[in-house]
Amino acid sequence: MAAKSSRDSSSSTYRCSYHAFLSFRGQDTRKGFTDHLCRALELAGIHTFRDDDEIKRGENIESELEKAIQESQVSIIVFSKDYASSRWCLNELLKIVERRNTDRRHVVLPVFYDVDPSDVRKQSGSFVEAFARHEERFSTEEMDKVELWRRALRDVASLGGMVLGDRYEGQFIQDIVGEIRNRVDHAALDVAPFAVGMDNRVRRLNMWLQDGSNDVGLAVICGMGGIGKSTIAKAAYNRNYDRFQGGSFLADIRESSEQPNGFALLQRKLLSDIQKGKAKKVYNMDEGTIMIKQAVGYKKVLIVLDDVSNRDQLNAILGMREWLHPGSKIIVTTRHEHLLNAHDVFEKFMVRELNEYESLELFSWHAFRQSHPEEGYKELSRHVVQHCGGLPLALQVLGSSLSGKSVEVWQSALQKLDVIPNDKIQKVLRISFDSLQDDHDKNLFLHIASFFTGKTMDYTITILDNLEFCTRIGIENLVDRCLLKMEWGWNRLVMHQSVRNMAMAIIREESPHDPGKRSRVLQKDASNILRKLSGTENIKGLMLNLASKTTFVGSDEKRCHVEDYDGNCSRRRRLGFFSWKPISFSSTNSASASNEIDFKSEAFRRMNNLEILILNNVNIRGSYEEFSKNLVCLSWRGFQLKSIPENFCLENLVVLDMRNSSLQHVWNGTRVIPRLKILNFSHSHGLSTIPDFSGLYNLERLILKHCINLVEVHESIGHLEKLVVLNLKGCKNLMKLPILRSIQDLILSGCSKLEMKKLNLVSAKSWYSVWSWVSPRKNTELSSFSLASLPRSLTSLSLDCCNISEIPTALTMLSSLEYLNLYGNPITSLPESMNNLVKLRTLNVSGCRNLTTLAELPRSLTSLRLACCNISEIPSALTMLSSLEYLSLHKNPITSLPESMNNLVKLQTLEVSGCRNLTMLPELPRSVTQLYGLGCTSLKRITNSPRSPDLDYGSSSIVVDPRLWYCGKLVDFGTLLDTLALDSYLSYLFDLEPKGGIEVQGNCCESLGVQGTFSCCILSIFVHGSKIPEGFNYRSMGNTVFSMIVPSHLNLKIVGLNACVLYARQSNRSLEVPRGHDHHSLELRNETKGLKWKWRVWRKVGWKLMNEDMLWLSRWIMGNNELECGEEVCFEIIDEQDGFLTKEIGVQFVYEQRNKDKEDVPSSSEDATTRTRVPGGVETGVQCIHSCDKKVISTVMCAAEYYFCNSGRIDLPRGSTAVGCRLSDF
């Protein structure tokens, strides 16, 4: 994109031959003010290029001046009374403005010497005569040059600058020198090249730095090594340094503090940066602390403390936070998530991995010096990117190392990476491991990396606590150092692949050439040890997976570390960084394969300290007496024997997992395994009965999923007082269950032959849920099943697809019930006593196709799912559910909704998609933020509540499913999208006269009144016209990307902007576009703050004069500090309207007066508008546009989708506006 280079360039340093470029009118100031100023700048060490318009002008001189402007950090423009008389000065000014517009780092400082800033901005006073003479000299064709001069004067004069006024020249010059010193003393930090995704990652940090707070702010940037914490901090520091009176970036604090007198050296660096090189030598830390306290209390500073590893470093370098001047900001980067205490007030920014697309782009820049892989390397590049797992350091290192290499070298390098990780990457990651305080945490880390990545926290703690680890606190320490993460919502342990590779490298160091002497052995090493009988007593854990039941795409079996979820298979999540797909299990239990390898049991003879043994489809021949007596965890999937041998010592086991085994009976008699807590025989198809488990008196979880031949469960499980989970999902031949005394979670889905009448639950102590997922029980009749024995404490009950035709009254007596799922049952009605369930929050009766009427429901409901029923009329009683937040009426034969729908004051989501008979939506409550209506083919009218004149329109906008516009008969949107009559508003906004009417394309030919649309703080209007109006004086011809710098005006603040896009009609192109492509988008980006808005218009309404060019006018209303003077703004047309080409983009900024008493306010003809209130409550800008083709005004009904930083659509919460949305993480 055209804008990319300018954005990315801000991340790196550039050549500057001069600190400052001085532009002035020689006849006015050469021998006086300018000479003194230049001398003062040089004495201050500010290298200045001095322009003098008395020197001979020629092509070489002009070229040198342009080069000097390009190679200067700051341009100082001295405006004097006759400045505008010099065409040379004015052309020089154009060059300076052009430099500033293309590089936001270039600073322009206007100096007003005996001239009023308003005379420069308005070209009044002495500037009037100068421009009159220019206009006399120039021909009509050359008048564009004069207009460029005027615009440049307006823009630069609007920057504020420094005014001499009544001050003495000497003091005025010193003030200028001080200002320039503050600007040029800061050398931009070198940021890593190809900073892909940097704008998105630094966006929220920039907003925090620019929040204008007077508090001393503290932010902590956390993340694993190599994730880009320092790069983000540098980018934010470079972008925001000029907003502070001083700053310091202290890099590598962890390493520097370990050097002799390291803290004192860091303190001296901090003092030197803040005091502009005037700091005295610091001899010891205590003395430095006192000096820092004195220095930071008098100016607002920005301080970055990079790579802090403990709290002592923070205190030693900076001292107390309270010492700093109000408005100061401190940024700390660290690998330790909990570096600061919970009671500390600070902002935390967690740095996430790059996504797949960003990773591929960053890797490509380093490997190919372009944004995408070269032909022939695409698949190899994807493998490398997958291996790196979004870690920027790994992508950079591997990309650079493979650059210019052949395909064969790439393939060899990938094979090596699987065995030996890259040393440079490992060195960075190893720092976090070495920072662990003791061997306990280091060994815990190596155990988790080897055997428990992807496991749940509870499962891991259950095992490792029995290996004398303090697991919970240890895991917290690993998470704190970003060596481990918890998968949100699933409580699983997730480890980055690069970190796991580092753990394997550390284990390899224990014995580089003899795996049998290592503490943990996995995969190939384990296979070799078993084959060569080379195991030793050093081995504490062994894992060998010969035939995984899960295939990882683009990876090998060494990366498989996923534990099957014991519940609903549809809820499984991908762990790690590899895509996966499940493979169905064989109908038989034979795990043998053509490549099966048999090992001898004597291979385990010397492994006396083996505690964790994980085997998958491994055959062991010989005596099982050889196995270690210290086994705590035995996971042997695909176990080949028909029963567990008596001489197999199990007495110390805490977990026994023999899924997919060939077991026909577990063991003979009764075995005592006192420590066993988890027992899993799932998918053991040969099992028909479960033996006496009375010797497993500490058993907590018994998992028997898909034991398809299991007929009976031994009654002893009813006496296991600690058994809380019993999963019998898919046991389709199970006939009966014993009395269950302590079960909390019972899963019976697919138990189609279970005699439910005999299920005795009387003694259950505290049931939380009875789950019934996935499989319909076609042969089960529950109409006679007595629910009277269900405990009143039950909170969740799921009876989906259970062939229930009538809800027993006893069910409505479960006074604690909060969740009830009756999906897919042939019920015809709900009992009148349903409202007895006073705590019920979620009711799902979707798929109950015989359900035609609704009873009175409990008012506690927050979610009601009625999809795919046969309800033709919604009772008004439903609208009395004042707590309801979600309502689904999907695919019901309803024709209308009750007029009292607005009584549902908490309703947020309404789904009426597929309601083909629905003709009208009534007034919806203001709380609704999501409306889904795909396939409402009869829908003609949407009504929404009228807005109050004092209501902020953006705060009540509804995010509408864009597919709603495919409802072919829909012609009346009411006020859903705040459609505005242009007769009342258009002249206030753009001075355009509305004429005529419009026609709707599609199934309806009704004519609508002239309207525009206003939603989420954006007004959108389409006008037929052939040129951009004159008031839009920031323009770009023929480009779909357009960047500019926001100008400033004295006593005015920016409140929004107007954008105008001119589309040229392509006469040879049809305007009929396929469904799904009938939209075009305009994206606005605040590059300085990292904000992004995307406005998408869906084409539903056409235009009468289809062969003419078209103008798209839009007004963007901004929130506080969303857009400020001096910031870089970029417009981009994302999807061009089919049949039209972008011809020109124009922008003008909208301001409001800061202080009504000030007289120096731009007139309506200038590039500014003043804010006013017009009828209806919409805040608009008023300005005069001198010329425009006043053609037919047309309207588009448009749905809005807002995108922030490629994060997808944001559903606006109640009470927020689109421009106010914020993301919480990078």
Model description:
Helices cover 23% and strands 19% of the residues. Among the domains are: 4-184, 3-Layer(aba) Sandwich (Rossmann fold); 198-350, Rossmann fold (3-Layer(aba) Sandwich); 356-417; 423-510 and 550-582, no CATH class; 979-1220, no CATH class. Helix 16 crosses helix 17 and helix 20 (423-434) packs across helix 24. The radius of gyration is 37 Å and the shape is globular. The strands form eleven sheets. The chain has an 18-stranded parallel beta sheet. Strands 37, 40, 41, 42, 44, 47, 49 and 52 form an eight-stranded antiparallel beta sheet that branches. It has a five-stranded parallel beta sheet with strand order 2-1-3-4-5, sandwiched between helices. It contains 26 helices and 52 strands. It is α/β, with parallel strands linked by helices. The N terminus and C terminus are likely disordered. InterPro entries: Apaf_helical (IPR042197), Disease_R_plants (IPR044974), Leu-rich_rpt (IPR001611), Leu-rich_rpt_typical-subtyp (IPR003591), LRR_dom_sf (IPR032675), NB-ARC (IPR002182), P-loop_NTPase (IPR027417), TIR_dom (IPR000157). This is ADP-ribosyl cyclase/cyclic ADP-ribose hydrolase.
